[in-house]
Amino acid sequence: MSGEERRVSGEERRASASLEDRLAAFLAARLGADAVRVLALERSTEGFSQETFRFDVEVACGKQRETKSYVAKREPVAGLLEPYDLEPEFRVLHALSQDPLPSPPTPFFERDPAVLDRPFYVMECLPGEVPVPAPKPDGSGPLDDAERKALAPQVASALARLHAIDWKAAGLGFLGAPGPGRGAAEREVERWAARIRAAALPTPPVLAEAVLWLRENLPACDEITLVHGDFRIGNWLIERAGERSRLTGLLDWEMVHLGDPLEDLAWCSCLLWRASGPNAGCLVPPDELAALYAVASGRTVDAARVAFYEVLALVKMSAIMLTGIRAFRDGRTTDLRMAIFDHQIGFLMAGLAMMRGHFAAIGG
Amino acid sequence: MLIPPEALIDGCMRTLIEAVLPDVSSRFARGQLYAVADVLQNLRDRIEPKRAPLEEEARSAGEALARVAAVLGEAGRADLAAAVRDAAAAAPEAPPAERAEALERAVVEAFAQISALPAERAEPARRALAAHLAQQALREVALLKASLLTEISKG
Predict the structure, then answer these.
(1) Which chain B residues are within 8 Å of A208, Cβ to Cβ?
(2) How far apart are CA B70 and CA A130, in angstroms?
(3) B5 vs A: CB within 8 A
(4) Which end of chain A is more exposed for a tag (fewer CB within 10 A), N or C?
């Protein structure tokens, strides 16, 4: 996790003593400890959706003292993926806690608002930092060449491992498997189309056209896997050490579902996470990442299916932005990061226009 | 803009006072922050979106719709052509934001109308709408400033 996190602010600071005390009491009970002290509580700025707090705890059991680091994720009052329900995400993370996949072990979930006002879960803090998917001032990507070379195969292998999880055996059937054939694609298109409608804002025509195109071009897939839903740079925890760099964690599972595995590959490869460069996930060219994934997973990567899900990726991000804009417009959040989407969505529409080939109509 | 300027300013004010101010400890900085809030609250009722970009959007959408109606007419779908023309004609002349929004809604509907045609007959209409969307995207991007996403994410 990045060291560049800010302290809890504003009302949170005024209430932070009680937040720390309440967290301590909660953890003491869950850990079966004599006493727990919460130290260095910080709110992370990276996540735009859920509220994320990082903290250390000093645990006393008899004469033994131990220090551990945790992260708590709490439902926001309003936000990008409302209405919120943290429980499915917790159940997935909890189920995967013993899996070799580098997902954070996640032992505790609490829905009772008496504890921290809103539902939250607690996971163990993994080492590493989260590079932001944005170009540096000199225009280069967030990772250097040695890091990219080291990380690309690890990312592809982690994605392949994620898709190899036997979700039925892991008890993840509650996520709801889509129907066969085009069911997975159709469900995702309708999921995000419904969110666009729910935002009740004027739909940019380029977005409306893209949704129409998606509905008319649903691809079939013959295999349903666990899909992270937000697998990308920005949700990868990385220990940066040149050619010895390591992928240490996969974060932010709030869009986890069952579906087409190529959806994750397309999301990670799409324009959104290239930091204005040519590389999928700021790592390697999209074809190269697809090839690494094909080797790691043993799957054939169907380019047309990936292209479909890349368009869906931008539609999905549009839906997320529109939801945030709606929350800010209604005064349900004071998080100004929701307001920046009002102009950022212009970049997104330009990307969507490019992917849909509209620039060809003006000779572009 | 999907957030009206007044709502945007109200939101900025709320964030500054409720989420930022409690973390500002320097007296001078607090005074400056209150001054920003004072400027903003007096700005909110004196501004409106620039007319020229909205008028350009409306003009571009109107032209695209006229071409779509012509293509539909040539394809023997007078009913669909009339629907497109009616939707364009129903857009209010003013204010500019409402006119542009109504014409954009008509563009969205036009995409659905042309999907009823065989692909080869729909193509000229689709190209007219695509040209409008491409130009719209270019106009939007031309107004955007360099992103501060890294600073926003890292604090």
Answers:
(1) 108, 111
(2) 53
(3) no
(4) C
Closest CA to A268 of A249, A247, A248, A283: A283
How confident is the model at residue A15, as a pLDDT? 53
What is the pLDDT confidence band of residue A17, given thresholds at 50, 70 and 90? low
Q: What is the pLDDT of residue A67?
A: 93
Residues of chain B contacting residue A358, judged by C-beta atoms under 8 Å apart: 130-131, 133-134, 137
Cα separation, A223 vs A203, whole angstroms = 33
Specify the higher pLDDT residue, A312 or B150.
A312
Q: Which residue has the higher pLDDT, B155 or B130?
A: B130
Contacts of residue B95, Cβ cutoff 8 Å, sequence gap at least 6: none
pLDDT score for A208:
96
Give the distance from residue B48's alpha carbon to the nearest chain A alpha carbon, in angstroms: 16
Q: Please indicate if any CB of chain A lies within 8 Å of the CB of B135.
A: yes
* Chain B interface includes A276 (CB < 8 A): no
Contact between A201 and A239 (Cβ < 8 Å): no
What value, to the nearest 5°, has the Cα angle with vertex A283 and ends A281 and A289? Answer: 80
- Give DSSP secondary structure letters for A19-60: HHHHHHHHHHHHHT-SEEEEEEEEE-SS-SSSEEEEEEEEEE
Dump pLDDT digits (tens) for B85-123.
999 999 999 999 999 999 999 999 999 889 888 888 889
Flag whether residue B116 sits within 8 Å of chain A, measured between CB atoms: no
Window 33-92 of B, Cβ < 8 Å to A: none
Q: Rounded to 5 degrees, what are φ and ψ at A203?
A: -80, 120
